[in-house]
Design brief:
With 159 residues, this protein is an all-alpha fold. The chain has 7 helices and no strands. Helices cover 73% and strands 0% of the residues.
Length: 159
């Protein structure tokens, strides 16, 4: 469980998502240079993470610190899977399938890459991270989870 009273959390709550966004930028830049389809998911993911960061900074959430912890820890699951894949190390089956689909030489629609990444990230990673952040109080983040849905709805509808 994340210690929300740690010095790092109190002193640098806004920098943690900046670091996450920098890592996503690095992956996006690398995949662009390589003309790799592995860049499709992190490009979309970076856009959503920026919206979450803005929501944290504007006190949109009831518990902005917990939501930032969740966003950073959630992103770390993807970043770790990507690093593992890039280093020919093992990763979860869901990420392995998504990465294989992006690198097997077949051209797929952007939506297919996004859905493969979203499947791995939301259907596996999110539950693990939410349980870690919320601990024995899963209801305490419920309203903020609904707020993330508002952000995603606005993002999808160009609002």
């Amino acid at each position: 469980m994340v210690d929300r009273d740690s010095e790092e959390t109190r002193d640098q709550p806004r920098q943690r998502l900046d670091t996450t966004l920098d890592e996503l930028d690095r992956i996006i830049d690398q995949t662009r240079r390589e003309h790799s389809q592995l860049g499709v998911f992190p490009s979309m993911y970076r856009s959503v993470t920026t919206e979450i960061q803005d929501a944290v900074r504007t006190d949109f959430f009831d518990d902005g610190v917990a939501m930032e912890d969740l966003a950073v820890t959630f992103a770390d699951r993807y970043l770790d899977a990507y690093r593992r894949w890039s280093n020919a190390d093992t990763t979860t089956d869901s990420w392995r399938i998504a990465f294989e689909a992006a690198t097997d030489g077949r051209r797929r629609m952007i939506a297919q890459h996004l859905l493969a990444g979203m499947n791995a990230h939301i259907n596996l990673d999110l539950g693990i991270v939410a349980a870690d952040i919320a601990g024995h109080e899963p209801d305490r983040l419920h309203r903020d989870f609904l707020r993330v849905n508002q952000i995603l709805f606005q993002k999808l509808n160009g609002l």
